């Protein structure tokens, strides 16, 4: 079997993924999404476009939502990664947002769903930290948590495409966990 | 309890798996020793491969093989010529796969594909559809039947009409772009082939692979447990499954081919562009006297596919004189195929826009005009409708939308820089149903298992089939399990043409009804191995119906047009449908709103261009091809009226997967006309079209 | 993408030295565009020098009222910074009008300036593009070019610069701080990006090996009313068809300070100097705005299919100028 690695073109990387330490020798070309799917068999994070154009690969890295398809794994040494598989923590019970997605029928084919979930979790933290969005009133006070109406939720989740058109139900599910 | 299983808003059975990341899709079967493939798309629009230099690719680390038209395993000649990949040096269009790299990792496969050097003998090409193209011809058939239907003397009737609309509407090429790219994982064990594939119909995948690889069907297993959307593009096997199987045979390894997103538009079908001339003649009371709907579209040189946009005129309105006709131009373009409501979606954009123009010309309310032209029987055939509640949908929609208070004058509502308008359009989609088999098994513990090779592409098939079964068995829903998505299960037709649930459900219902009868005759619990009944609806589901069977609906849209930028946004969208019995209120609503969302995209954001110089689609990725994002989609409401139709199937259902997209673009376009006073006749309604027209109007 | 070496220097000098030591190297920060281009085969670095963790991730106020934004400050953090929101609102608005939440969390200030065009011919190795492969021709000029330039384009290239942020920075008179083999220097953002001319392969006036270390937001525009507006095909997550950033201060009904920059129209953020000259000292009102904007756009040379950008840019500029101008007394 030929190796896919060339000398000098791979490195050891240490990560925590869903709370578990992981050490891997990675091809420098490998992005986090492929590391999750190919090396760790965590296939919940989806590859919809591989170019940061759909959001299906969204995961949380050190608490921030990012497109894992554009993150070279080698750059992430020491990072804490949370994927859809880890959203609920160790328990049997799903994350409240996962429950809300089920209650609202906030998905159909399910392929964008992990990205929508991780993105929404990251987005809620951003709004709580006072991050504005394109639709936030520019006159709103800087630094205060932003109240999320439907326009805010939609704008902030626009980096996650859904071709089945579950958008209205996703917005309702997000509202459920805000309330 | 048991009486309510049908129609109940039951939660999706695979929902937990989908929200937890546990649901596996075709590229996610990490078999031991699995390799990855990457296609090399042709960079000429027409010509022949004269040489493939694989040396640089093969020298890269981790590369296992490069398959070329010269050395790929031979296939039997497929019925669908788009599947004859790597079998000949001919290049019928840009993007056609001309080599396939296989490597240990996706990264190595991609690098190898880029390192393959292909030489071509190019030939002149033509990818531009024009209405009067010299190569246009009248096809004999479209998928629903005759390509040309005519009665009365439409030309004379139109010429003599008191009020006339004569307009040409254009819909650009559109792409399905399901969120899961087409992907397959193939594995050979001797002469046994297993494929995990993203497909709307695994039964067909198996029979096609059997034919191509000259194997008995029982040597092939096809699994499609979870499918990340398809919208028609996965309705037939696509090159990914053939290429993965070729690569796996060639290398002796399990191989996954996840087709790169930007290479998809060339190989998985698209909605062909249409140029549609609509001529409507009417008397002063608004009664139609002539309907002429003439469509020109393109197909590839690989196969004939006709976007049957004119068929809707055979269904919608009473007219003494009708022409519904198609012309098709073979071009050096990728092969078009099914995209959600092929024919109906673009056809109803044109027809329902023209009806709105007629209403405007008459000074008649567009809802009333449609009601006035309600036919007693199907205009194209004269057959009676099995059920038709379009008028009820229009009236209920008008009531819910608040249509009554509408000022019909265009450009009559302004909010600062925004022009506000409302519009209406009708929807229709035929009832289609195909024979299916299914088994129903009763187990000693009082539970039941339903088995058939149906595909759940996000429709909720697993869930609704359990409801059909529970209803027929007279047992609680939680006592029924469904197994779908595997080819060892009883054969079943595809999830397409809005026919899946009707076709599968019919077989499930038959099996369960028979099983219930047997259990009633049996005393005591079932034996340890259970009691199983198999049903086959051949001869019933495909029996000719004396009725014209269609679902109908009505869309109401409110749009805001920004006079500063020409940006159009939808504020409200309401769809009311009459589609027989809705078998699951929750998943049914999602299907309707999903179709409407895609219709919103067709109206406002989605557009692909065929590059005349290079022959491919310019908007090939999800940054350039704009499917609607969250921010584009307002609170879409979908609802339905109860419809009891005894001429359908045992459940009384019509298909609901496609009608949501039919007419949406017309309702939005009509709302934009109402807002601006300008009639746009080409989609999508983007600022490059809107703004210059608004400026001209000022 | 072929294999490449990976280095993670801990300081700016070390990064610049590493670049010099590795021919064919590229700096990597957020990677949202570079990794994309590497996957496409458009960018083919032999080594990546990861500057994403350099200590350039802070936003610092300076005694003179200016603010220095480190090159690795993420777009989302820059947009949310209260000082930026309050004093240079156009910058925050421009950032938030671009990309998606996820991309803004990754993309850096320096990297955003260095984004490459999204011209589809540039991204497709199978097509000619003078920017990607000098001398191969321009597929867009006679091809599909609705999204392309109407100002400052050349026979060789009609691409536009995709950044929203850079348009605001251009209007705000921001400066780019560079460090390279020849030491440190600064360039105004307006002089940072090039017009394509004969050499569309060069996007900027950076010298080989130079690294962006920061961006300076000047005191001269701090607290002056400013705003950004963008038009696009979908309501979010799309590049600009056209956009505008405006800085406007009116005193006693007269334009006292003004800057107008357009996005989506040219190979670089387009400062509307003709507009500004005409407006300075003029009464702030629709007539003056209209005339001044027309002066600039008279220079537009639309391609076959993108003439709509001219009225679009005009309307955007008039709208934002109108919103920033105080209502006339007595109204």
TrEMBL record, chain A:
Keywords: Iron, Metal-binding, Oxidoreductase. The keyword Flavoprotein does not apply. SUPFAM superfamilies: 2Fe-2S ferredoxin-like, CO dehydrogenase ISP C-domain like. The keyword Iron applies. Pfam families: Fer2 (PF00111), Fer2_2 (PF01799). It comes from the Bacteria. Residues 11-87 form the 2Fe-2S ferredoxin-type domain. PANTHER family: OXIDOREDUCTASE WITH IRON-SULFUR SUBUNIT, OXIDOREDUCTASE, IRON-SULPHUR BINDING SUBUNIT-RELATED-RELATED. This is 2Fe-2S iron-sulfur cluster-binding protein. It comes from Streptomyces pyxinicus.
TrEMBL record, chain B:
Residues 20-124 form the Aldehyde oxidase/xanthine dehydrogenase a/b hammerhead domain. Residues 1-21 are annotated as: Disordered. SUPFAM superfamilies: CO dehydrogenase molybdoprotein N-domain-like, Molybdenum cofactor-binding domain. Pfam families: Ald_Xan_dh_C (PF01315), MoCoBD_1 (PF02738), MoCoBD_2 (PF20256). InterPro entries: Ald_Oxase/Xan_DH_a/b, Ald_Oxase/Xan_DH_a/b_sf, Ald_Oxase/xanthine_DH-like, AldOxase/xan_DH_MoCoBD1, AldOxase/xan_DH_MoCoBD2, AldOxase/xan_DH_Mopterin-bd_sf. Keywords: Molybdenum, Oxidoreductase. This is Xanthine dehydrogenase family protein molybdopterin-binding subunit. It comes from Streptomyces pyxinicus. The lineage of its organism: Bacteria, Bacillati, Actinomycetota, Actinomycetes, Kitasatosporales.
UniProtKB/TrEMBL annotation, chain C:
It comes from the Bacteria. The keyword Oxidoreductase applies. This is Xanthine dehydrogenase family protein subunit M. It comes from Streptomyces pyxinicus. Gene3D superfamilies: 3.30.465.10, CO dehydrogenase flavoprotein, C-terminal domain, Uridine Diphospho-n-acetylenolpyruvylglucosamine Reductase, domain 2. PROSITE patterns: FAD_PCMH (PS51387). Keywords: Oxidoreductase. The keyword Methyltransferase does not apply. InterPro entries: CO_DH_flav_C (IPR005107), CO_DH_flav_C_dom_sf (IPR036683), Diverse_Substr_Oxidored (IPR051312), FAD-bd_PCMH (IPR016166), FAD-bd_PCMH-like_sf (IPR036318), FAD-bd_PCMH_sub1 (IPR016167), FAD-bd_PCMH_sub2 (IPR016169), Mopterin_DH_FAD-bd (IPR002346). Residues 1-222 form the FAD-binding PCMH-type domain. SMART domains: CO_deh_flav_C (SM01092).
């Amino acid at each position: 079997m030929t190796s896919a690695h060339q000398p000098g073109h791979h490195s050891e990387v240490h990560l925590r993924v869903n709370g578990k330490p992981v050490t891997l020798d990675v091809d420098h070309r490998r992005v986090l999404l492929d590391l999750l799917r190919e090396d760790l068999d965590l296939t919940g994070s989806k590859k919809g476009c591989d170019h940061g154009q759909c959001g299906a690969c969204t995961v949380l890295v050190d608490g921030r939502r990012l497109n894992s398809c554009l993150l070279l794994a080698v750059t992430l040494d020491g990072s804490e990664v949370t994927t859809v598989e880890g959203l609920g923590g160790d328990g049997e019970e799903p994350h409240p947002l996962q429950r809300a997605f089920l209650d609202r029928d906030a998905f159909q084919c399910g392929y964008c769903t992990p990205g929508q979930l991780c993105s929404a979790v990251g987005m809620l933290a951003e709004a709580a930290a006072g991050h504005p969005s394109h639709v936030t009133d520019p006159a709103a006070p800087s630094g205060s948590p932003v109240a999320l109406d439907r326009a805010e939720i939609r704008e902030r989740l626009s980096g996650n495409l859904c071709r089945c058109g579950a958008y209205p139900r996703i917005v309702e599910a997000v509202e459920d966990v805000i309330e | 309890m048991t009486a309510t299983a049908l129609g109940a808003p039951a939660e999706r059975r695979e929902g937990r798996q989908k929200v937890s990341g546990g649901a596996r899709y075709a590229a996610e079967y990490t078999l031991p020793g699995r390799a990855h493939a990457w296609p090399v798309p042709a960079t000429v629009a027409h010509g022949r491969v004269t040489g493939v230099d694989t040396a640089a690719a093969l020298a890269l680390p981790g590369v296992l093989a490069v398959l070329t038209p010269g050395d790929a395993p031979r296939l039997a000649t497929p019925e669908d010529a788009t599947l004859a990949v790597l079998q000949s040096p001919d290049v019928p269009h840009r993007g056609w796969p001309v080599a396939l790299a296989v490597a240990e990792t996706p990264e190595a496969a991609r690098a190898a594909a880029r390192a393959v050097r292909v030489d071509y003998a190019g030939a002149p090409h033509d990818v531009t559809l024009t209405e009067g193209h010299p190569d246009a011809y009248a096809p004999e058939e479209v998928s629903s039947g005759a390509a040309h239907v005519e009665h009365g003397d439409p030309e004379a009737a139109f010429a003599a009409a008191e009020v006339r609309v004569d307009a040409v509407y254009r819909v650009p090429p559109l792409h399905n772009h399901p969120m899961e790219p087409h992907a397959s994982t193939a594995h050979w064990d001797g002469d046994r082939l297993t494929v995990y594939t993203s497909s709307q119909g695994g039964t067909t995948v198996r029979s096609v692979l059997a034919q191509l690889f000259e194997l008995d069907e029982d040597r092939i297993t096809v699994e499609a447990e979870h499918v990340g959307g398809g919208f028609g593009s996965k309705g037939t096997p696509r090159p990914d499954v053939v290429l993965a199987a070729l690569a796996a045979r060639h290398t002796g390894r399990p191989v996954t081919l996840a087709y790169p997103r930007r290479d998809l538009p060339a190989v998985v079908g698209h909605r062909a562009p249409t140029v549609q001339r609509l001529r409507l003649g009417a008397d002063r009371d608004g009664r139609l006297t002539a309907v002429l709907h003439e469509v020109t579209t393109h197909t590839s040189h690989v196969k004939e596919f006709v976007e049957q946009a004119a068929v809707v005129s055979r269904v919608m309105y009473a007219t003494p004189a009708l022409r519904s006709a198609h012309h098709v131009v073979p071009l050096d373009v990728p092969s078009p195929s099914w995209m959600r409501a092929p024919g109906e979606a673009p056809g109803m954009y044109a027809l329902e826009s023209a009806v709105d123009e007629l209403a405007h010309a008459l000074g008649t309310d567009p809802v009333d005009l449609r009601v006035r032209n309600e036919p007693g029987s199907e205009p194209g055939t004269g057959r009676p409708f099995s059920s038709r509640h379009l008028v009820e949908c229009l009236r209920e929609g008008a009531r819910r939308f608040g249509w009554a208070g509408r000022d019909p004058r265009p450009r009559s509502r302004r909010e600062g820089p925004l022009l506000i308008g409302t519009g209406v359009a009708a929807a229709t989609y035929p009832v289609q149903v195909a024979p299916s088999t299914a088994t129903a098994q009763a187990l000693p513990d009082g539970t039941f298992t339903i088995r058939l090779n149906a595909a759940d592409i996000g429709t909720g098939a697993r869930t609704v089939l359990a409801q059909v079964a529970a209803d027929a068995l007279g047992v609680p829903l939680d006592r029924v399990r469904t197994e779908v998505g595997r080819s060892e299960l009883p054969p079943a037709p595809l999830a397409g043409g809005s026919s899946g649930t009707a076709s599968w459900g019919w077989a499930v219902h038959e099996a369960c009804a028979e099983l219930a009868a047997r259990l009633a005759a049996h005393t005591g619990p079932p034996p340890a191995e259970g009691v199983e009944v198999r049903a086959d609806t051949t001869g019933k589901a495909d029996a000719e119906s004396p009725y014209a069977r269609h679902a109908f609906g009505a869309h109401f849209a409110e749009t805001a047009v920004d006079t500063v930028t020409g940006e159009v946004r939808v504020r409200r969208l309401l769809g009311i449908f009459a589609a027989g019995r809705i078998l699951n209120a929750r998943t049914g609503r999602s299907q309707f709103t999903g179709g409407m969302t895609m219709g919103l995209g067709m109206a406002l954001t989605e557009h692909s261009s065929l590059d005349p110089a290079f022959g491919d689609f310019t908007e090939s990725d999800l940054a350039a091809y704009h499917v609607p994002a969250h921010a584009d989609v307002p609170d879409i409401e979908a609802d339905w009226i109860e419809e009891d139709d005894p001429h359908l199937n045992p459940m009384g259902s019509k298909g609901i997967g496609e009608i949501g997209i039919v007419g949406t673009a017309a309702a939005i376009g009509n709302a934009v006309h109402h807002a601006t006073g300008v009639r746009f006749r080409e989609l999508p309604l983007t600022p490059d079209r809107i703004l210059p027209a608004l400026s001209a109007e000022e | 993408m072929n294999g490449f070496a990976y280095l993670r220097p801990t300081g700016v000098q070390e990064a610049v030295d590493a670049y010099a030591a590795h021919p064919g190297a590229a700096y990597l920060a957020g990677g949202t565009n570079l990794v994309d281009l590497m996957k496409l085969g458009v960018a083919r670095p032999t080594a990546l020098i990861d500057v994403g963790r350099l200590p350039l991730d802070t936003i610092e106020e300076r005694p003179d009222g200016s603010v220095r934004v480190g090159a690795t400050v993420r777009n989302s953090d820059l947009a949310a910074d209260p000082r930026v929101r309050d004093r240079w609102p156009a910058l925050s608005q421009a950032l938030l009008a671009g990309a998606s939440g996820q991309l803004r969390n990754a993309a850096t200030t320096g990297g955003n300036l260095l984004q490459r065009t999204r011209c589809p011919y540039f991204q497709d190795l199978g097509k000619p593009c003078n920017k990607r492969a000098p001398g191969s021709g321009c597929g867009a000029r006679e091809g599909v070019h609705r999204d392309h330039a109407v100002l400052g384009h050349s026979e060789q290239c009609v691409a536009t610069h995709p950044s929203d942020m850079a348009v605001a920075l251009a209007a705000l008179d921001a400066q780019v701080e560079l460090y390279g083999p020849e030491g440190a220097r600064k360039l105004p953002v307006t002089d940072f990006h090039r017009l394509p001319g004969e050499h569309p392969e060069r996007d900027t006036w950076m010298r080989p090996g130079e690294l962006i270390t920061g961006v300076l937001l000047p005191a001269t525009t701090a607290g002056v009313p400013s705003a950004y507006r963008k038009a696009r095909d979908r309501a979010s997550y799309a590049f600009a068809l056209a956009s505008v950033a405006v800085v406007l201060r009116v005193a006693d009904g007269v334009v006292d300070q003004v800057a107008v920059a357009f996005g989506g129209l040219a190979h670089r953020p387009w400062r509307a100097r003709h507009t500004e000259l005409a407006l300075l000292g003029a009464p702030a009102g629709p007539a003056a705005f209209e005339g001044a904007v027309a002066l600039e756009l008279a220079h537009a040379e639309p391609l076959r299919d993108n003439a709509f950008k001219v009225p679009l840019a005009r309307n955007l500029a008039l709208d934002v100028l109108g919103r920033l101008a105080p209502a006339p007394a007595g109204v």
